[in-house]
Amino acid sequence: MRTETIVILSQREIEKMRKAGRLAAQLLQHLEPMVKPGVSTQELNDEAERWTQAHGAKSAPLGYKGFPKSICTSVNEVICHGIPNVKQILRDGDIINIDVTPIVDGYHGDTSKTFLVGNPAPKTKKLVEVTEECLLRGIAEVKPGARIGDIGAAIQEYAEAQGFSVVRDFVGHGISNVFHTAPDIPHYGTRGKGKKLRAGMVFTIEPMINEGTWEVEVLSDKWTAVTRDRKLSAQFEHTIAVTEDGVEILTAL
Ligand code: MF3
Ligand code: CO
Ligand code: CO
């Protein structure tokens, strides 16, 4: 549980979050055409780092708590925090989540998508589609006066109704000039529970949805989180701001 106070951002700070968020979305869009059978996750990392620097930004993951690379690349049974590697080559039928977080003028834009590599099996595509819909349903709950639990409840209800499970061990987070801060945003929960949302709060929603068990195992590299049953996992993430009349997606194009 994060215990920091939840910050309400000023309009000036939200404008900086918009700039960072837009660059993050553009970076994912820039990488998308590279996602093809035969590319290595290291090549995706290197292009992300080059493009980020060329746009005058920094990669938040690089060196964050010792993370060794500029982006996270989470393939198939990897839930999150996959480490790019020259030896990891994408194959037809894989899925890969690419999670990017450029820092622009001190502020963070955090977004991720799961991409299809070539032509995955229908049930794999369904997992990815359901996960994206989970993110959208979570975002749709956001407005002043709603509760943090409403977000998780909407995601969990839909994911489980579709036969999938929701990861508990990783949650969305407050974000601004720091990468991860209060509040925690669980992707499961109960309507009407949790803190009330207020205009000016900025946080991520980033559901990780699994084909099988929601249980996680972290590999010996201390980062790579995989499903305990090695079945597939997908994730989508946006950084959002609570506005006076609802929600603004900061990492949309
Ligand atoms: N971008 C991830 C998130 O959504 C965090 C990655 S931390 C890292 O919160 F160190 F693995 F990069
Ligand atoms: Co992220
Ligand atoms: Co995040």
UniProtKB/TrEMBL annotation:
<feature type="domain" description="Peptidase M24">
    <location>
        <begin position="15"/>
        <end position="244"/>
    </location>
</feature>
<comment type="subunit">
    <text>Monomer.</text>
</comment>
<dbReference type="GO" id="GO:0005829">
    <property type="term" value="C:cytosol"/>
</dbReference>
<feature type="binding site">
    <location>
        <position position="237"/>
    </location>
    <ligand>
        <name>a divalent metal cation 2</name>
    </ligand>
</feature>
<feature type="binding site">
    <location>
        <position position="99"/>
    </location>
    <ligand>
        <name>a divalent metal cation 1</name>
    </ligand>
</feature>
<keyword id="KW-0479">Metal-binding</keyword>
<keyword id="KW-0645">Protease</keyword>
<feature type="binding site">
    <location>
        <position position="173"/>
    </location>
    <ligand>
        <name>a divalent metal cation 2</name>
    </ligand>
</feature>
<dbReference type="GO" id="GO:0070006">
    <property type="term" value="F:metalloaminopeptidase activity"/>
</dbReference>
<dbReference type="GO" id="GO:0046872">
    <property type="term" value="F:metal ion binding"/>
</dbReference>
<comment type="function">
    <text>Removes the N-terminal methionine from nascent proteins. The N-terminal methionine is often cleaved when the second residue in the primary sequence is small and uncharged (Met-Ala-, Cys, Gly, Pro, Ser, Thr, or Val). Requires deformylation of the N(alpha)-formylated initiator methionine before it can be hydrolyzed.</text>
</comment>
<dbReference type="GO" id="GO:0006508">
    <property type="term" value="P:proteolysis"/>
</dbReference>
<feature type="binding site">
    <location>
        <position position="206"/>
    </location>
    <ligand>
        <name>a divalent metal cation 2</name>
    </ligand>
</feature>
<comment type="similarity">
    <text>Belongs to the peptidase M24A family. Methionine aminopeptidase type 1 subfamily.</text>
</comment>
<dbReference type="Pfam" id="PF00557">
    <property type="entry name" value="Peptidase_M24"/>
</dbReference>
<feature type="binding site">
    <location>
        <position position="180"/>
    </location>
    <ligand>
        <name>substrate</name>
    </ligand>
</feature>
<keyword id="KW-0031">Aminopeptidase</keyword>
<dbReference type="InterPro" id="IPR000994">
    <property type="entry name" value="Pept_M24"/>
</dbReference>
<keyword id="KW-0378">Hydrolase</keyword>
<feature type="binding site">
    <location>
        <position position="110"/>
    </location>
    <ligand>
        <name>a divalent metal cation 2</name>
    </ligand>
</feature>
<protein>
    <recommendedName>
        <fullName>Methionine aminopeptidase</fullName>
        <ecNumber>3.4.11.18</ecNumber>
    </recommendedName>
</protein>
<dbReference type="InterPro" id="IPR001714">
    <property type="entry name" value="Pept_M24_MAP"/>
</dbReference>
<feature type="binding site">
    <location>
        <position position="110"/>
    </location>
    <ligand>
        <name>a divalent metal cation 1</name>
    </ligand>
</feature>
<feature type="binding site">
    <location>
        <position position="237"/>
    </location>
    <ligand>
        <name>a divalent metal cation 1</name>
    </ligand>
</feature>
<dbReference type="InterPro" id="IPR002467">
    <property type="entry name" value="Pept_M24A_MAP1"/>
</dbReference>
<dbReference type="GO" id="GO:0004239">
    <property type="term" value="F:initiator methionyl aminopeptidase activity"/>
</dbReference>
<dbReference type="InterPro" id="IPR036005">
    <property type="entry name" value="Creatinase/aminopeptidase-like"/>
</dbReference>
<feature type="binding site">
    <location>
        <position position="81"/>
    </location>
    <ligand>
        <name>substrate</name>
    </ligand>
</feature>
